[in-house]
């Protein structure tokens, strides 16, 4: 069973930063790795479900024309709204995923520390909706903690295995260490160097 909404509300009632996103070097480093892993310097539209209190969202907003952030927690969204109040290109939405996946399509979808809260059935639905929502030339980035979490039905490694199988997209990047796993997929297999003319070859574009 997927983790219930009240789990997150309880966490945020106890702390505005329950995972110490702002203070821990682990979290700061992970954000830097996430941003460095993006194949493009700028995206037209980004969707960040599970945005939490908006620490990663602030950085993503600098890399796109429009950013949609969502979270199941009303408290988290209010914190994110305060964190992002100076950004005019951000929209926030309270949703329970996968069933309340927002309409529209995106150039980048960022799944950061989200998917292990879902059970296998819900994760598979989320993967299907994410794949359908990717624009041509789009990317999906996933980053997850690898160690077991008592409340979560899946581990980070299990999440990424299902993502790779379910998306059916070219694998563009993989970074792993003892604690975290970060991967990027794309509808096009062109590398950054190929796109900028530094390396020969053209990537194959998959149908949307």
Give an overview of the whole structure.
Keywords: Methyltransferase, Transferase. The chain is of the alpha/beta class. The protein has a single domain (5-195), classed as Rossmann fold. It has 7 helices and 7 strands. It has a 7-stranded mixed beta sheet, sandwiched between helices. The longest helix has 14 residues, at 120-133. It is globular. The mean pLDDT is 93.
Distance between the termini: 30 Å
Strand order of the largest sheet: 3-2-1-4-5-7-6
Q: Provide mean pLDDT, rounded.
A: 93
The residue ranges in which pLDDT falls below 50 over 5 or more consecutive positions are none
CATH class category: Alpha Beta
Number of helices in the DSSP assignment: 7
Total domains, how many?
A: 1
The topology string of helices and strands comes to HHEHEHEEHEHEEH
**Beta-strand proportion:** 25-35%
CATH homologous superfamily annotation: Vaccinia Virus protein VP39
Pfam family, one: Methyltransf_12
Keywords: Methyltransferase, Transferase
Protein name: SAM-dependent methyltransferase
GO molecular function, one term: methyltransferase activity
Quick overview of this protein structure:
The chain has about 210 residues and is an alpha/beta fold. It has 7 helices and 7 strands. The chain is about 35% helix and about 25% strand.
Name the features.
7-stranded mixed β-sheet; Rossmann fold; transferase; single chain; alpha/beta; 7 helices; methyltransferase activity; Methyltransf_12
How would the blueprint of this fold be written?
Elements: H1 5-14, H2 25-37, E1 43-49, H3 55-61, E2 64-71, H4 74-83, E3 90-94, E4 106-112, H5 120-133, E5 134-145, H6 156-167, E6 171-176, E7 180-186, H7 192-195
Parallel strand pairs: 1-2, 1-4, 2-3, 4-5
Antiparallel strand pairs: 5-7, 6-7
């Amino acid at each position: 069973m997927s983790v219930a909404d009240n789990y997150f509300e309880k966490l945020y009632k106890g702390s505005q930063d329950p995972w110490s996103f702002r203070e821990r070097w682990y979290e700061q480093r992970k954000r830097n790795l996430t941003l460095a892993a993006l194949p493009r310097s700028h995206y037209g539209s980004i969707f960040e479900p599970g945005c939490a209190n908006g620490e990663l969202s602030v950085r993503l907003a600098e890399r796109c024309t429009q950013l949609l952030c969502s979270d199941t927690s009303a408290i988290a969204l209010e914190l994110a709204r305060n964190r992002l109040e100076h950004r005019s290109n951000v929209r926030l939405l309270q949703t329970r995923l996968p069933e309340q996946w927002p309409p529209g399509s995106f150039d980048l979808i960022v799944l950061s520390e989200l998917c292990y809260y879902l059970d296998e059935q819900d994760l598979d639905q989320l993967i299907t909706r994410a794949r359908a929502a990717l624009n041509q030339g789009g990317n999906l980035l996933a980053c997850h903690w690898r160690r077991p979490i008592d409340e979560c039905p899946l581990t980070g490694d299990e999440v990424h295995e299902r993502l790779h199988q379910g998306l059916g997209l070219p694998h563009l990047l993989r970074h792993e260490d003892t604690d975290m796993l970060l991967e990027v997929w794309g509808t096009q297999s062109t590398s950054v160097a190929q796109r900028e003319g530094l390396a020969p070859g053209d990537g194959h574009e998959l149908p949307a």
